[in-house]
């Protein structure tokens, strides 16, 4: 049975809308693919700190990686330009993963530079985006927090490699940092399931680092010790 003219017009409009949205998604995916490739290149640079030679020259590595964030800013401008107004979360899934990875990389750089935790504002600034929804293209708070939790796993690995390279005090500093991070996350009432699961892994990352600290301490290799962070439910 043929559709009447009114129904035909309705579905023609729907088809046009769906086709237009699909075109937008394809354009965004194209930019995100390039951004993800750039992110992999940045990760490869940062992975050099796990090598004995890289551990001795973290300053050069972080300087190079920080410079690569200039290209990141250009990619996010391209994505932002393709977004319809006030439609950020309609398309957010396309860049969620890479934004989390970039948040992690930014946090890793700042830790290596100053042994401190990057704030959301500074993280957004490195990527060239905003922090508030009403300001336009921004970093979602959950993506920033996920980046910090990814950093915890990376630092757990880093502490082991630091000892292998003869840097026995580094795990002590990492354990203190992760203890503070763990305490901070315990203040939050996390609603995001992925965040909660990732946070559950933080206590294991911290425990692993504390075991490294204990090992170097009883062997009198580290010059300082830490008090293990209290465990919680």
TrEMBL record:
Q: Where in the cell is it found?
A: Cytoplasm; Nucleus
Record's keyword annotation contains NADP: no
Summarize where Mg(2+) binds, as residue positions: 154
- A Pfam family of the record is Translin
Gene3D superfamilies the UniProt entry points to = Translin, domain 1, Translin, domain 2
Q: Please, which domain of life does this record's source organism belong to?
A: Eukaryota
- What processes in GO biological process is this protein linked to? RNA metabolic process
User: GO cellular-component terms in the record?
Assistant: cytoplasm; nucleus
- Which InterPro entries does its entry note? Translin, Translin_C, Translin_fam, Translin_N, Translin_sf
Sorted alphabetically, which SUPFAM superfamilies does this protein's record hold? Translin (SSF74784)
Instruction: Give the keywords, sorted.
Output: Cytoplasm, DNA-binding, Endonuclease, Hydrolase, Magnesium, Metal-binding, Nuclease, Nucleus, RNA-binding
User: Would the keyword Repeat turn up in this protein's UniProt record?
Assistant: no
MF-aspect GO terms: endonuclease activity; hydrolase activity; metal ion binding; RNA binding; sequence-specific DNA binding; single-stranded DNA binding
Family according to the record: Belongs to the translin family.
Subunit structure, as described in the record: Ring-shaped heterooctamer of six TSN and two TSNAX subunits, DNA/RNA binding occurs inside the ring.
What role is this protein assigned? Answer: DNA-binding protein that specifically recognizes consensus sequences at the breakpoint junctions in chromosomal translocations, mostly involving immunoglobulin (Ig)/T-cell receptor gene segments. Seems to recognize single-stranded DNA ends generated by staggered breaks occurring at recombination hot spots. Exhibits both single-stranded and double-stranded endoribonuclease activity. May act as an activator of RNA-induced silencing complex (RISC) by facilitating endonucleolytic cleavage of the siRNA passenger strand.
Write the protein's name.
Translin
Which organism's genome codes for this protein? Answer: Capitella teleta
């Amino acid at each position: 049975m043929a559709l009447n003219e009114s129904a035909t017009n309705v579905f023609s409009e729907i088809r046009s809308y769906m086709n237009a949205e699909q075109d937008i998604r394809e354009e965004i995916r194209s930019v995100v693919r390039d951004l993800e490739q750039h992110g992999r290149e940045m990760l490869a640079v940062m992975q050099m700190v796990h090598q004995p030679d890289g551990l001795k020259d973290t300053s050069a590595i972080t300087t190079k990686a920080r410079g690569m964030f200039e290209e990141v800013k250009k990619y996010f401008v391209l994505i932002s330009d393709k977004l319809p107004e006030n439609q950020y979360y309609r398309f957010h899934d396309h860049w969620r993963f890479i934004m989390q990875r970039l948040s992690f990389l930014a946090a890793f750089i700042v830790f290596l530079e100053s042994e401190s935790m990057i704030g959301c504002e500074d993280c957004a600034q490195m990527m060239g985006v905003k922090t508030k929804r009403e300001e336009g293209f921004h970093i979602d708070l959950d993506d920033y927090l996920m980046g910090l939790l990814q950093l915890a796993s990376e630092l757990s690995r880093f502490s082991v490699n630091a000892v292998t390279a003869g840097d026995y005090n580094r795990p002590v500093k990492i354990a203190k940092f992760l203890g503070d991070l763990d305490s901070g996350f315990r203040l939050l009432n996390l609603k995001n399931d992925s965040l909660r699961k990732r946070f559950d892994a933080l206590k294991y990352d911290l425990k692993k680092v504390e075991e490294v600290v204990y090992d170097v301490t009883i062997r009198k290799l580290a010059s300082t010790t830490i008090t293990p962070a209290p465990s919680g439910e």
